[in-house]
Amino acid sequence: MKRWTTILGRGGTVLIAISLALLLVSIIPQINLAASVGVMPVASDQVYTISYRALTPQQGFQVEVTVEGAINVYLLEVGSEEPYPGVSMLFDNATELQEFLDANPDLIIWEYKLENGNFDHYYTPTKVMNATLVFHNPGLDDATVDYAVILTSTVAPGEKVRNIALGTTPIGIVLALPWLVNIWKQRKQS
Amino acid sequence: MGKGKPFLEVMSSAIHEDYRFPFLELFAFLYAIGTFVFASFGVTIGTQGTAQGTTNEIIAYGAVSSTLSLPLFIFIILVFKNIAYGLGSDLEKGIIQTYFSYPLRRRGILTAKLLSALGIALILFLGIQLSGLYILAPDIVLPQLGTVILTYAANLSYPLLIAGIMLLLTLKLRRGGISLIAGLVLYFAMSIISSIATVFAWASESPLGLQIISMINPSLALQQYYGGTFEFWIPAFSEVLIYTGVSYVIVAIVFFLGYTYFSRRLNL
Lengths: 190, 268
What we know:
Order of helices and strands of chain B: HHHHHHHHHHH
Helix content of chain A: 25-40%
Largest sheet of chain B: none
Shape of chain A: elongated
Strand content of chain A: 35-45%
Distance between the termini of chain B: 25 Å
Oligomer: heterodimer
Largest sheet of chain A: 4 strands, antiparallel
Strand content of chain B: under 5%
Structural class of chain A: alpha+beta
Number of helices of chain B: 11
Helix content of chain B: over 70%
Distance between the termini of chain A: 21 Å
Strand order of the largest sheet of chain A: 1-8-3-6
Radius of gyration of chain B: 20 Å
Shape of chain B: globular
Number of domains of chain B: 1
Order of helices and strands of chain A: HEEEEHEEEEH
């Protein structure tokens, strides 16, 4: 019984140590590498794209968009190894974009349909990849897009690492507590 | 009483000595921090024209190599400490003689000691490194698991060989201090010898020296396979596997010698 308490206790303290390391990693601030900011009018059925090459799991980007009118925003992924020959990432028109989306639904990381609204999204890749941000005006009226795309560099995806650390810390404490109490009792007796 | 209980007794005693609180926790913390801080997914190698493997394999190799940099050295320090000081002090203080009175064969005692000194350190190191890499880049680690495992295997064989040599030295000298120094010297000597062999290879356009070194340190052949530094030496994947296999055969022979010495020649 005592041996199991020790084994589980030490496992718990190791888990706490790893969680502390993850928490430390998660608070290392990210560095803004580049920012692309602008306001652009998007005519009916027009498509605008912003592409990023060779993003890594330690590079992400934050997208802040405010829209006047109706705009569909897509983030598309193109693998670094297979660039999908025959498909131009700079879509000339909405038909080309729609054809691409229909043919490659697995390459859509996310899509938002905005109408006189705004959104703020952060994305970190899980592999080395190219990414393209697409603005498409599906409506009949012209729209205006006020956007800010900030490319960031980080040691690790902060939120993900923090969540793992916060999840494992209580498990570590539960495992370590009986062992630590035993040690405290032993010291008190001696 | 079966042999299982004395084996566990020896092993738990060894674990208690090797990983006194908070050593294990400190090393776990350093592995975890090191994995994230040193990870790099940029294609730092593989830019030469002779590089083999796909882009994703090269990225996976580069990521594992970068995360290995300092954490591998920390792992080596832990293993060297455990073998040199753990086993060395047991021999010096006569604790090994006490173990000989247990109903357990000598090789069982050494296995228990090595499982503590090497096995637990290895499980902790690989567990944290692989989990860290998976957290960072699951879409690199999972599809390229073969490359990831091969990179770890190639990079760990030389430290394991030194650990085996240190085991032999500790058993022969019955103290750990000198074998610890010898281990550290051997570890750093490899980078010096590799550099000299590289210069010779450039000058003579012959990879013979590098090929010989690759038999004990296959990470050099793997680096050449994914990095493609030399035009005159482009090892095939099967060649890299052979170098890795040969290196582990050498490691196994050194540990076998250690077991033989401990079982038959060690007079206490």
